[in-house]
Automatic annotation (TrEMBL):
<dbReference type="GO" id="GO:0006537">
    <property type="term" value="P:glutamate biosynthetic process"/>
</dbReference>
<feature type="binding site">
    <location>
        <position position="114"/>
    </location>
    <ligand>
        <name>substrate</name>
    </ligand>
</feature>
<dbReference type="InterPro" id="IPR012338">
    <property type="entry name" value="Beta-lactam/transpept-like"/>
</dbReference>
<feature type="binding site">
    <location>
        <position position="258"/>
    </location>
    <ligand>
        <name>substrate</name>
    </ligand>
</feature>
<feature type="binding site">
    <location>
        <position position="158"/>
    </location>
    <ligand>
        <name>substrate</name>
    </ligand>
</feature>
<dbReference type="Pfam" id="PF04960">
    <property type="entry name" value="Glutaminase"/>
</dbReference>
<dbReference type="GO" id="GO:0006543">
    <property type="term" value="P:L-glutamine catabolic process"/>
</dbReference>
<feature type="binding site">
    <location>
        <position position="240"/>
    </location>
    <ligand>
        <name>substrate</name>
    </ligand>
</feature>
<feature type="binding site">
    <location>
        <position position="165"/>
    </location>
    <ligand>
        <name>substrate</name>
    </ligand>
</feature>
<protein>
    <recommendedName>
        <fullName>Glutaminase</fullName>
        <ecNumber>3.5.1.2</ecNumber>
    </recommendedName>
</protein>
<feature type="binding site">
    <location>
        <position position="189"/>
    </location>
    <ligand>
        <name>substrate</name>
    </ligand>
</feature>
<keyword id="KW-0378">Hydrolase</keyword>
<comment type="similarity">
    <text>Belongs to the glutaminase family.</text>
</comment>
<feature type="binding site">
    <location>
        <position position="64"/>
    </location>
    <ligand>
        <name>substrate</name>
    </ligand>
</feature>
<comment type="subunit">
    <text>Homotetramer.</text>
</comment>
<dbReference type="InterPro" id="IPR015868">
    <property type="entry name" value="Glutaminase"/>
</dbReference>
<dbReference type="GO" id="GO:0004359">
    <property type="term" value="F:glutaminase activity"/>
</dbReference>
Length: 304
């Protein structure tokens, strides 16, 4: 038996003693207010073990981690046709880069770069009756916890400064890959990204991707093959132009957000979430990535 508790504690102690914690995202002004010293980890195993260390119970902005949940809902609603409008290849570029989108005629490289996630948001708006309410309820259902909400101030802050996302949405519209109004799609997208969760809530929400599509309350959301697709996309595209590095160092499907969260999982074994708001140059949590590298190294648990 692995002693997860002491492994997590040693990773935590090493992480909080680091002097270089990266830099908190400032391009969404509301996120700049977060204390860089927060650090939490939460591990949930499929055999029913749960371990939290540090700030695992403080809600934070999940940002791009929400893109995985949006993709899951879109696949639940319209299945494979999602991939007529968004490709499944790593972009090798930052999450907000637009050059490829122009060259590739408005088909985003994957659902996790911003342009791809904006297309997914458009699909959700077209297929949900009350998009913002229905999406939030979906996320709450996934973990059986009603205490999950949008942070309206964060959504507004991004709306006021998200010029590049407006450019992406307009470019998509010009290529006829956006059915709804730019304003409406981005309003949904900014809210989706503003959802706040704790490390423990996130580990519970992602349970279905480690459990053949069955969420924590045993409800089936996705087929085996859909779960395989989403985990493959997390492995190849979840960290943008650092996806190779994450696979190389950590060896798990995972997804980061500029709020400093990372969720990673080993199907049939565990889900682990880290939160450290300081980001590296590629926009991924600096200490979160280091902690996960330590975790898979010390436990010898990864997909490879
Ligand atoms: O659209 C944006 O720029 C943000 N709402 C989300 C970006 C993000 O989290 C990138 N991930 N590391």
């Amino acid at each position: 038996m692995r002693d997860f508790k002491s492994i997590l504690h040693s990773i935590y102690n090493e992480a909080i003693s680091q002097t270089d914690k990266g830099k908190v995202a400032t391009y969404i002004p509301e996120l700049a207010k977060i204390d860089i010293d927060n650090f939490g980890i939460y591990l949930k195993t499929m055999t029913g073990e749960n371990y939290g260390v540090g700030d695992f119970n403080i809600p934070f902005s999940i940002q791009s981690i929400s893109k995985v949940l949006a993709l899951g809902k879109a696949m639940e609603l319209i299945g494979e046709s999602v991939f007529k409008r968004v490709d499944v290849e790593p972009s090798g570029h930052p999450f907000n880069q637009l050059a490829l989108l122009e060259v590739e005629n408005g088909i985003p490289r994957n659902p996790f770069i911003n342009s791809g996630a904006i297309v997914i948001a458009d699909i959700l708006i077209s297929n949900l009756k009350n998009p913002k309410t229905d999406f939030l309820n979906y996320v709450r259902d996934l973990c059986g916890d009603k205490n999950i909400n949008y942070n309206i101030a964060v959504a507004k802050s991004e709306k006021d400064t998200g010029f590049k996302n407006f450019a992406a949405a307009n470019l998509l519209k010009s290529f006829k890959n956006l059915d709804n109004d730019v304003e409406e799609v981005l309003d949904f997208y900014f809210h989706q990204c503003s959802i706040e969760m704790t490390c423990s809530q996130l580990s519970n929400v992602f349970y279905f991707l480690a459990n053949d599509g069955y969420c924590i309350n045993k409800k089936l959301h996705l087929s085996n093959s859909q779960v395989k697709r989403i985990n493959a996309l997390m492995l190849t595209c979840g960290f943008y132009d650092e996806a190779g590095e994450f696979a190389f160092e950590v060896g798990l499907p995972g997804k980061s957000g500029v709020g400093g969260g990372i969720v990673a999982l080993l199907p049939d074994h565990f889900i682990i979430t880290t939160w450290s708001p300081g980001l590296n140059k590629k926009g991924n949590s600096l200490l979160g990535m280091k902690a996960l590298e330590q975790f898979t190294t010390k436990t010898n648990l990864s997909i490879f």
